[in-house]
């Protein structure tokens, strides 16, 4: 007699995370068979030959003798002081070391912040497309993500009027991902001011995922939300993983700003949840001060001639040359989010396309629907490969889309013969 299978949490069925999901598992199977894949599913700089800057590596090495004990649940005091000083310098109100939380990457802090905030049934306004950890963490903390649309025709920027119309009596927070993953959109000050005003009118917490804050192209500038928010409660997330190419160190931080009295209970909840997991990875925290006060190593990569800039240029040129693709050029971050158009888009299924790219072209991409969009004709690629690799990937993408377009063109419905007049 067979025993029943072990049940799992029911709400997991609502969670999407194809970035490391079914397609990634199939990719591993193909690699065990000896296939060589080009994997563009994860923004993981170290996997593409990038290294964390030497002065960050040296900071950890110089302090390795201090890394054995637990540290304070909110992080090393000197690390929190450096983060607070960085935020004070860019105008964040009420930034102080006591309101800084260091975590095992921003991912852990997203989960902790939502666990501190939400009661069952509470709602969080999340962009669509979103980085799916935000919607997943909302669901798994018994909340409900409510998606506000960031349409391609508007440069993947949200419409504040549409966003405010989604606010209900259960809404607790607005999530902003800027610069955006997966689209690369960069939010202008006027738009952020309007969203901040919405949060202030409805007493909502602003959750600002700013992990790509220094990865910008073509003269675009980053506008942090906290200085605009003033006394309104705002939690700003940053870290070492992207700007400083140190994903594996798992070092992220969150800075709580705004009127301290209004957010005192939330701060204590964050502190409690941080204490329950004891502390974040200690060695990596010794690199924080060096990262925030040392040389700027990301900007040269984002200028003409820099590797990220040239990879982005390769994507833009490939999409412009393709009869099957359109692209809102990414202004920041490490991704592009092309859309499939024309004959190739007829009956298009983004997951099926991603599987075909993997099985027939040895390329791993992420279907657009993984980012909680209501359409199925987009996909995400990372800008981390060498430009020549990017060009090769898009040649393979066009090869598959050519086949789809030709197959559709051959299927022409037969016209019915006219009946003779009675």
UniProtKB/TrEMBL annotation:
Cross-referenced InterPro entries: Ala_Aminotransferase, Aminotransferase_I/II_large, PyrdxlP-dep_Trfase, PyrdxlP-dep_Trfase_major, PyrdxlP-dep_Trfase_small
Instruction: Indicate what this protein is called per its UniProt record.
Output: alanine transaminase
Cofactor(s) the record lists: pyridoxal 5'-phosphate
List its EC numbers. 2.6.1.2
Source species, domain of life: Bacteria
Q: Which CDD domains match?
A: AAT_like
Keywords (alphabetical) are:
Aminotransferase, Pyridoxal phosphate, Transferase
Cite the source lineage.
Bacteria, Pseudomonadati, Pseudomonadota, Gammaproteobacteria, Lysobacterales
């Amino acid at each position: 007699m067979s025993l029943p299978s072990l049940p799992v949490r029911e709400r997991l069925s609502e969670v999407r995370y194809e970035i490391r999901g079914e397609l990634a598992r199939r990719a591993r199977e193909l690699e065990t068979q000896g296939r060589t894949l080009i994997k563009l599913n994860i923004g993981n700089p170290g996997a593409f030959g990038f290294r964390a800057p030497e002065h960050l590596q040296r900071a950890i090495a110089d302090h390795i003798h201090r890394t054995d004990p637990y540290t304070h649940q909110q992080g090393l005091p000197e690390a929190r002081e450096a983060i607070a000083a960085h935020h004070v310098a860019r105008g964040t109100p009420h930034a102080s070391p006591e309101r800084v939380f260091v975590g095992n990457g921003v991912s852990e802090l997203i989960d902790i912040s939502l666990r501190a905030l939400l009661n069952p049934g509470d709602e969080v306004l999340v962009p669509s497309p979103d980085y799916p950890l935000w919607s997943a963490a909302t669901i798994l903390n018994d909340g409900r993500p409510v998606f506000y649309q960031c349409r391609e025709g508007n440069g993947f920027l949200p419409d504040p009027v549409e966003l405010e119309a989604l606010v209900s009596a259960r809404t607790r927070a607005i999530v902003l991902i800027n610069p955006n993953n997966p689209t690369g959109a960069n939010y202008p000050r006027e738009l952020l001011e309007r969203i901040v005003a919405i949060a202030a009118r409805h007493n909502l917490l602003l959750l600002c995922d700013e992990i790509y804050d220094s990865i910008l192209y073509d003269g675009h500038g980053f506008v942090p939300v906290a200085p605009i928010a003033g006394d309104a409660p705002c939690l700003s997330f940053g870290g070492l993983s992207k700007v400083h190419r140190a994903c594996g160190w798992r070092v992220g931080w969150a800075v709580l700003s705004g009127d301290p009295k209004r957010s005192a209970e939330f701060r204590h909840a964050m502190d409690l949840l941080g204490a329950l997991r004891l502390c974040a990875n200690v060695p990596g925290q010794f690199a924080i001060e060096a990262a925030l006060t040392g040389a700027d190593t990301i900007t040269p990569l984002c200028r003409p001639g820099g590797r990220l800039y040239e990879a982005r240029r390769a994507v833009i040129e490939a999409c412009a040359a393709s009869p099957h693709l359109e692209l809102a050029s990414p202004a920041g971050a490490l991704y592009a989010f092309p859309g499939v158009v024309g004959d190739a888009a007829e009956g298009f299924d983004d997951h099926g396309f991603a599987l075909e790219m993997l099985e027939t072209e040895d390329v791993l991409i992420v279907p657009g629907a993984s980012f909680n969009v209501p359409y199925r004709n987009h996909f995400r690629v990372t800008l981390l490969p060498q430009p020549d690799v990017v060009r090769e990937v898009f040649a393979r993408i066009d090869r598959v889309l050519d086949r789809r377009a030709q197959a559709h063109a051959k299927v022409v419905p037969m016209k019915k013969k006219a009946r003779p007049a009675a």
